[in-house]
């Protein structure tokens, strides 16, 4: 949007460092002035390391869950709540992080996030029963929900626009590599240390990050002394929580195993979400919104977020179906499945900084287009898998998928947030995190529902279990490929945001 239509700006906040300038006829400014101060680099590195730990923790539970169920004598449906409560808590807390970061600043937000995560990890390691472990997972998730918006907001505030791609590439490394390493770490620790050891290994790293952060992290922008609107918080919890729970229940409903009709929380969540949106639009007039929806007035942000949501929907759906194929159709053990998916995750993470550097040079479009096409090719490969397919073919297709996603996510993250003015970075980060949770739940529900429906049809026609599963997955991956074509259509319209710090939100 243009300067005239930009939202009113309160007291200015500290923006990213200005690039060096030189007057005509004078000696150019020394190159080091274009670099980030050591203090800023240290803080960003600490935040990236902390984010790595909290995201790593998210994906350790899947491998550990069977042992927890056996040790605590709970059923699979009860044990699954350890994952569900984490996802629900994230969905409830993330929409409030924009307000939290502006109201309390970088330092308090970091200490709160890591204190919650550390306390939850300690409580989980010592949990005497399932209820305490469930509470511990919710506490962990509260800290995790704050960390990623905090990291992205801090990067946007401290890093000049012409270097953001490089730094966001490192953030992408964390987002990609940590989930890939989680199941492998969990599998390695479970044998000698048991499920409590999974939390015990993470605990000292979290404590170290908390202590170092308490010394190093300070506020890098002025705080906005805004009141907390309790009604908005309640509506967000009911709206986003209901949608995520309902969507995550759709897959179980397709299989005939669900305690509550998913339509009830989905419809109820949508109604509360509509009230939440109305409330935020009203509060935005006085600049008091819990989640400032004026970020969507930026075409670059809205388009980038739309492409990101579609990409995440396809990615989460694929990542939930692939292990099912590997274990139930190809006969791999859980640990072998985790190890086979590791190369792709590491490749996506290691490529992140490279893609970030390329983004700084060429912008988003030359990266998003080939990246999206790689994902479509990978999905086409997955659609050909049968029970006779060799494991290395799936491994190769997964690496292609991961490389494609690396070329998609870093440009989308950087372009979307870079299209906003600095005062909206925290709300933009919160919106991205919220959409990520919704897209993850929707993608999982969509893929599982498609697989289950087609699988049941093929089983009724006399197909074997493995043939029916791969037949259902074939349709799901074709649908995923179609979703990625939407990403392609949106991606070709994106351009790199203006590099002038503090510029109004761009169309």
From TrEMBL:
Membrane spanning residue stretches: 43-69, 81-101, 108-135, 141-159, 171-191, 197-218, 230-251, 263-284, 305-326, 338-359, 366-385, 391-418, 430-453, 473-494
Database matches in SUPFAM superfamilies: MFS general substrate transporter (SSF103473)
Domain of life: Bacteria
GO cellular component, one term: plasma membrane
Tagged with keyword Transport: yes
Subcellular location: Cell membrane
InterPro entries, sorted: EmrB-like (IPR004638), MFS (IPR011701), MFS_dom (IPR020846), MFS_trans_sf (IPR036259)
Keywords: Cell membrane, Membrane, Transmembrane, Transmembrane helix, Transport
Region feature Disordered, mapped onto this chain: 1-34
Membrane disposition: Multi-pass membrane protein
A family per Pfam: MFS_1
Keyword Hydrolase in annotation: no
Major facilitator superfamily (MFS) profile domain segment(s): 43-499
Biased composition (Low complexity): 23-32
MF terms in GO: transmembrane transporter activity
PROSITE patterns cross-referenced by the UniProt entry: MFS
Skewed-composition ranges (Pro residues): 7-22
Similarity field: Belongs to the major facilitator superfamily. EmrB family.
Protein name: MFS transporter
